[in-house]
Amino acid sequence: MRNILSVMLILMLTVSNIYSISYAEESTKSTEPQTTQSSSDKSNRKKTADDSSDKKTDTSDSNSNEPDDASNSKNDADSNETSNQPDVQSDAAILINSNTGKVLYEKNSNKRMYPASTTKIMTAYIALNRLDFTSEITASKTAVSIASDSSKMGIIEGEVLTTEELLYALLVQSANDAANVLAEAVSGSISDFVNLMNQTAQDLGMSNTHFANPHGYHDDNHYTTAYDMSIIAQEAMKNSVFAKIVSTKSVEIQPTNKYDKVRKFSTRNSLINVRSSLKLQYQYANGIKTGYTDSAGQCLVGSAQRSGMDLVTVVFHAPENDPERAFIDTKNLFEYAYSKYRIKTALTADELASTCNVKWAAGKSHLVLKANQDVKILLPRENFNSELLTSEIKIYDGIAAPIKEGEELGEIKYYYDKQEVSTAKLYASRNVSRSYVKQFLSYILNIWFLLILGVVVVIILLRRIKEKRRIARMRRFRKQHNRGGR
């Protein structure tokens, strides 16, 4: 029995050496940071309306063009701000750093409000995703039949306009008729488009939103929240065409088959309109959309970018006695954020974030993981302590070939003073094909292991049985010996 066991052990060690030799180089070269493992296996790797025309811990800093001294940024703060919070008089508001998704300020952000023409952000977002930018669209009688007090560009039944022209009219002039024409072009009817708007809102997580039309003309059943509106605003600003349109100060629509004059429109967003009062303009603003109805009051969805730090704001129902208040509130929110926070690049898109070993890999099993996009972290301007900035990497369990480049295999989280400030997914930097030889050998090793384990168990049992028999014989011998002595 011992000879059999010895032979089996020798065979197992030989196969094991053959199987493991291909991993030796990677194991000695591994530079993988310390990680925490998840419990998931490979199969779970992925786990308007009436806009009034007059009315890793060592990170690289991205603020190289901006003074790092917090006091320099504080000089921009609004004189009305008398506390650590911005002066916001609108009924509902929210301020978000869109680099990280962190909410920096909120006021009644989940209260249902009427959005007025800020609704058109959703309309434009859907149209950009569903229509060709150069497509020609013919306006129907239904589309141009809007309320007389609506904001409009004066589209004529049968007039042909491109998607591009309609989007500029929608977002710069805030044209309700343009919203209807786009809606019919996307869905065939306005009602079907509204259903699509509501479905899109649900898909994006806008759980407290319901649209009744594509432009925001007042309807009691047409509502949203500041928080929900910030979701679609951030999503829309990821589209470079949308971002370009909402930052446009003025636009001209050339003559068409029904209208022989050039239409000229200027933005109603005083933050970026050079003709507006200087106290309302904001040099870092780049959008997004105004809104007004009697019920909604003055509304504004704003955006700004400064030294790599992107902001999105929403203010709903500014005080009725101050037609400029929505812009002032938004400026105060911007200045508050830029005086209190700054952005650092924690990890670049092409930088090695971590490594992992891939089971059954053909060739090298050592795989580099990357974030595939720059990872930004939001940090305080005052009293920043680099020792409080830490990171944690989690590599998913059960990583085995084949692996596709870009496949999600882990995540990295950054913390400042134990508070999470950013998180990003980690992806495979290359394809990894499967070695069926290695897979087969691993199965063989498992079989050998089970066989050896079984043999060991049998030997132990046999020895115990043998020992029991020996003890029994000794007892019988002693008993017989005692009887013979008498």
UniProtKB/TrEMBL annotation:
Any GO molecular function: serine-type D-Ala-D-Ala carboxypeptidase activity
GO BP annotation list: cell wall organization; peptidoglycan biosynthetic process; proteolysis; regulation of cell shape
Keyword Transmembrane in annotation: yes
Pfam families: PBP5_C, Peptidase_S11
Active site per UniProt: 117, 120, 174
Residue ranges with Low complexity bias: 60-74
Record: residues binding substrate: 289
UniProt signal peptide: 1-24
Record keyword Transmembrane present: yes
Matches recorded under PANTHER family: D-ALANYL-D-ALANINE CARBOXYPEPTIDASE, TRAFFICKING PROTEIN PARTICLE COMPLEX SUBUNIT 12
Name of this chain's protein: serine-type D-Ala-D-Ala carboxypeptidase
Upper lineage: Bacteria, Bacillati, Bacillota, Clostridia, Eubacteriales
